[in-house]
Amino acid sequence: MMEFLVDLLGLDAKADTITTSQICWRTGVVFIIALVLLRVSGRRTFASNSGQETVVKFMLGAILSRAIAGDSPFGVIIAAAVMLVLLHRTLAYATYFFPAFGRLVKGGSSVLAEGDTINHGELRGASFSEEALRAAVRGAANLDDLAQAKTVRLEHDGTISVVKKEK
């Protein structure tokens, strides 16, 4: 049985000796492994655009692509992918249980505007123009005027949130 899997997936093949059928079989196996790893990683990994989740997305894709192409030993690459997901999960738990650590890893939100008073220092720090701020307020809260907003924040994941003034 083990010899069959070695031949089917080309577990002993190198990038220059792997066959098309072995790459196809590896693609299917890696797809299933990726689905399992994403379940372990949690829903937030692909729902969020925070820095941590973005790094995991890129790295997981890069690591698993090496398993398909046969650039490195299959088992080693899968072990690296599992390690990445477990590290991500550990960091997620640590940021939940230790809020100060969470702020260090994720960063915090910054107030870009309060009412029609724009915080130019925060805009500069975020590389955000006034026009981009106004466009974000229109898009996020459907408000045409900053005076209608109580607070405009740049969240740690890069999204803009707007709290509307009470009517």
What distinguishing features does this structure have?
167 residues, alpha+beta
Description:
It is a single chain. Helices cover about 60% and strands about 10% of the residues. The chain contains 8 helices and 4 strands; from the N terminus they run ααααααββααββ. The chain folds into 2 domains: about 1-105, no CATH class; about 110-165, bsu07140 like domains (CRO Repressor). It is elongated, with a radius of gyration of 23 Å. Strands 2-1-3-4 form a 4-stranded antiparallel beta sheet.
List low-confidence stretches: none
Percent of residues in helices: 55-70%
Helix and strand sequence: HHHHHHEEHHEE
Distance separating the two termini: 71 Å
How does the SSE layout of this entry go?
Elements lengths: L1 H8 L10 H22 L2 H4 L3 H19 L4 H24 L1 H8 L3 E5 L2 E2 L1 H6 L4 H12 L7 E6 L5 E5 L3
Antiparallel strand pairs: 1-2, 1-3, 3-4
Helix pairs in contact: 2-4, 2-5, 4-5, 5-6
Quick structural summary:
With 167 residues, this protein is of the alpha+beta class. The protein has helices at 2-9, 20-41, 44-47, 51-69, 74-97, 99-106, 120-125, 130-141, and strands at 110-114, 117-118, 149-154, 160-164. It folds into 2 domains: 2-103, no CATH class; 108-164, 2-Layer Sandwich (CRO Repressor).
